[in-house]
């Protein structure tokens, strides 16, 4: 079964009672509130930047909101003890057929296909649980809907400050899951089988059978990745599955499992077309980013690599931005059109501090200049920066 899933339509975040995040997302990350739904017990706020939409679900009353099973529209209640990103919504053409196929494959439907309508038209959706931690997926057909967000939500008038603030965020680039030990391969298989995602090799060093194993220097991690069936390698949304291979159980992946209370979404990569300006603007708004170790910029040929890509090593170091060039020969391996660009391909990344009070969920900015993968040096640098941060927290 090859399902026609495209880029996520929204990523849903849940917060426990008395915790909010929507204001923070609006004020510091400058996501624009577009639609809201409020009941006496919950508030659901959709915030958009480019085509990236977060649905922030807040509780307005103590206790479990799930006395009514549909308290949260287009989602289920993960009953969070802490902030968690627990649902990714994908658009599909045929919700009924899709849900039927998933059920015949043994998947559990949390919300059966349901139709909702208002003046803007109608949508059909269902919610299925995934095989990873608390993550569920909303499958949505909104081809018959003309309204600004979804039926059941009230539109919010667009404030004039949404553009021209230097923050260039275009779409969700990737979603990284932390899987339990031994669970990354099963997750990969499930998304290939049930959602029709294709394997994506993160790096030329990756062995398709084993996955991408990062060892040495205190890093013990297995990474496996997929990309959605629709969309080119450069434009589709990727799923990255991370699993700890470390023996001492104190690294960031194990810490996520412990503090999150199980597997789940560790970070979301937001694609930007101008990482330098965007990082600067977000820093001015108070967003805090991980700073890679100073050695990242001074180690073997990094400054030359950065200059070779046409970037300024001092500026990147000052902001904490990581850069990785695609090694020659990498293009063909991932099936990129070799005639696309004669110049060197590279990408730049930067990672925020954890968003909630626990060391769990964070965001990333990624600026792809033709490079579809993830740089090994950058993953190591992020790993190191997170470890330093975690050690400082103790
Ligand atoms: O580089 C990325 O964005 C990744 O998604 C790879 C990754 C996965 C898990 C980590 O704890 C650190 C890096």
Structure commentary:
- Mean pLDDT is 88; it is low at 330-342.
- The strands form two sheets. A nine-stranded mixed β-sheet has the order 6-7-8-5-1-4-3-2-9. Strands 10, 11, 12, 13, 14, 15, 16, 17 and 18 form a nine-stranded mixed β-sheet that branches.
- The protein has ten helices and 18 strands.
- The radius of gyration is 20 Å and the shape is globular.
- Helices cover 23% and strands 31% of the residues.
- The chain has 394 residues and is of the alpha+beta class.
- It has helices at 22-27, 95-104, 184-195, 252-260, 275-285, 295-298, 302-308, 313-319, 330-334, 376-393; strands at residues 8-14, 32-38, 42-49, 52-59, 84-91, 109-118, 121-129, 136-141, 154-155, 169-178, 198-199, 212-214, 221-227, 238-244, 264-272, 322-325, 346-351, 362-369.
- Strand 6 (109-118) and strand 7 form a beta hairpin.
- The protein has two domains: 5-155, 2,3-Dihydroxybiphenyl 1,2-Dioxygenase, domain 1 (Roll); 169-327 and 344-393, 2,3-Dihydroxybiphenyl 1,2-Dioxygenase, domain 1.
- The site of 3-(4-hydroxy-phenyl)pyruvic acid has 13 residues, from strand 14, helix 4 and helix 10.
- Belongs to the 4HPPD family.
- Its cofactor is Fe cation.
- GO terms for molecular function: 4-hydroxyphenylpyruvate dioxygenase activity; metal ion binding.
């Amino acid at each position: 079964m090859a399902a026609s899933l495209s880029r996520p339509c929204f990523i849903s975040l849940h917060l426990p009672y008395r915790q909010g995040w929507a204001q923070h997302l609006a004020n510091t990350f400058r996501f624009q509130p577009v639609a809201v739904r409020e009941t006496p017990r919950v508030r659901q706020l959709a915030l958009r930047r480019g085509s990236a939409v977060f649905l922030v679900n807040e509780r307005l009353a103590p206790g479990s909101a799930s006395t009514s099973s549909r308290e949260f529209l287009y989602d289920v209640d993960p009953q969070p003890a802490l902030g968690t990103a627990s649902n990714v919504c994908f658009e599909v053409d045929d919700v009924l057929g899709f849900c039927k196929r998933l059920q015949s494959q043994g998947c559990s439907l949390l919300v059966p296909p349901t139709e909702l309508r208002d003046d803007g038209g109608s949508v059909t959706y269902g919610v299925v649980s995934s095989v990873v931690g608390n993550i569920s997926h909303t499958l949505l057909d909104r081809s018959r809907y003309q309204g600004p967000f979804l039926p059941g939500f009230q539109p919010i008038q667009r404030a004039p400050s949404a553009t021209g603030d230097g923050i260039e965020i275009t779409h969700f680039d990737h979603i990284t899951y932390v899987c339990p030990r031994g669970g990354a391969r099963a997750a990969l298989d499930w998304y290939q089988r049930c959602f029709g995602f294709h394997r994506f090799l993160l790096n030329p060093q990756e062995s398709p059978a084993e996955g991408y194993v990062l060892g040495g220097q205190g890093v013990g991690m297995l990474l496996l990745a997929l990309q959605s069936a629709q969309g080119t390698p450069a434009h589709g949304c990727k799923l990255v599955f991370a699993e700890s291979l470390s023996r001492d159980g104190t690294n960031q992946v194990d810490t996520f499992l412990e503090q999150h209370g199980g597997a789940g979404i560790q970070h979301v990569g937001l694609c930007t077309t101008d990482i330098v300006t965007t990082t600067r603007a977000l820093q001015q708004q108070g967003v805090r980013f991980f700073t890679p170790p100073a050695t990242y910029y001074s180690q073997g040929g990094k400054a030359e690599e950065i200059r070779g890509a046409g970037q300024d090593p001092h500026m990147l170091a000052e902001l904490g931005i990581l850069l990785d060039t695609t090694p020659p020969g990498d293009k063909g391996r991932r099936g990129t059109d070799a005639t696309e660009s004669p110049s060197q391909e590279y990408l730049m990344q930067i990672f925020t501090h954890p968003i909630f009070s626990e060391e769990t969920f964070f965001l990333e900015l990624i600026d792809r200049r033709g490079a579809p993968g993830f740089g090994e040096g950058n993953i190591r640098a992020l790993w190191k920066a997170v470890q330093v941060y975690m050690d400082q927290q103790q």
